[in-house]
Design a protein that fits this description.
The complex is a heterodimer of chains A (114) and B (115).
Chain A lengths: L4 E3 L2 E4 L5 E6 L6 E7 L6 E7 L2 E5 L6 E5 L5 E5 L8 E8 L9 E2 L3 E5 L1
Parallel strand pairs in A: 2-11
Antiparallel strand pairs in A: 1-3, 3-8, 4-5, 4-9, 5-6, 7-8, 9-10, 9-11
Chain B lengths: L2 E4 L4 E4 L4 E3 L1 E4 L5 E7 L5 E7 L5 E4 L2 E4 L9 E3 L8 E8 L9 E3 L3 E6 L1
Parallel strand pairs in B: 2-12
Antiparallel strand pairs in B: 1-4, 3-9, 5-6, 5-10, 7-8, 8-9, 10-11, 10-12
Classes of the chains: A mainly beta (114), B mainly beta (115).
């Protein structure tokens, strides 16, 4: 059973560019959440997708957008990159069955903005 | 809003020592509580969880008890190994309503075990 997969593993961009990160959820999961983890910090919630709609959003600007496809995979897009966007971006998948449902994380995409 | 406060690190222990990493939280209602572990260069792995007061989560020798009266979820292990060296994150998920499923994390505690 494949777990959560993310691509690419590493990415280098320059300020002002745009980036797209991809995530495939664990088999049987239909909900995808994205988190940003700055160096030395805990992950911060960006947003969550369920049934191809953004269901919940954290405190991130509109430069951060996403999409969920019919097969439940998801993309995270970041426009007009800033140096401060350099971080590990984590995708997590789950089933929406209540507060005790576990979110399973992928290995992350490490983004460096120069 | 929801928040998680973790014991500041880094923590360095000798092999076979007893481990405690403190975690306290602020949330409305009865959140679910989690400990995740992050090994170098990897994503987060669920270590254990508890979903109601007085529940004890356990896995791989680690334990944590959901204490509603002290709003705490401290992580413990009786005898640590070098392979336990990692960063540990305490997290909560609000029980407010269906669809409010974001995890709120602490800042993490880096643990290093010396042989």
């Amino acid at each position: 059973d494949a777990g959560v997969t993310q691509s690419p593993t590493h990415l280098i961009k320059t300020r002002g560019q745009q980036v797209t990160l991809r995530c495939s959820p664990k088999s049987g999961h239909d909900t995808v959440s994205w988190y940003q983890q700055a160096l030395g910090q805990g992950p911060q919630f960006i947003f969550q997708y369920y049934e191809e709609e953004e269901r919940q959003r954290g405190n991130f600007p509109d430069r951060f957008s996403g999409h969920q496809f019919p097969n439940y995979s998801s993309e995270l897009n970041v426009n007009a990159l800033l140096l401060g966007d350099s971080a590990l971006y984590l995708c997590a998948s789950s089933r929406p069955q209540g507060p005790s449902e576990t979110q399973y994380f992928g290995p992350g995409t490490r983004l460096l903005v120069l | 809003g929801d928040s998680v406060t973790q014991m500041e690190g880094p923590v360095t222990l000798s092999e076979e020592a007893f481990l405690t990493i403190n975690c306290t939280y602020t949330a409305t209602g009865y959140p679910s509580l989690f400990w995740y572990v992050q090994y170098p260069g990897e994503g987060l792995q669920l270590l254990l969880k508890a979903t109601k007061a007085d529940d004890k989560g356990s896995n791989k020798g680690f334990e944590a008890t959901y204490r509603k009266e002290t709003t705490s979820f401290h992580l413990e292990k009786g005898s640590v190994q070098v392979s336990d060296s990692a960063v540990y994150f305490c997290a909560l998920r609000s029980a407010a309503n269906f669809g409010n499923e974001k995890l709120t994390f602490g800042t993490g505690t880096r643990l290093t075990i010396i042989p």
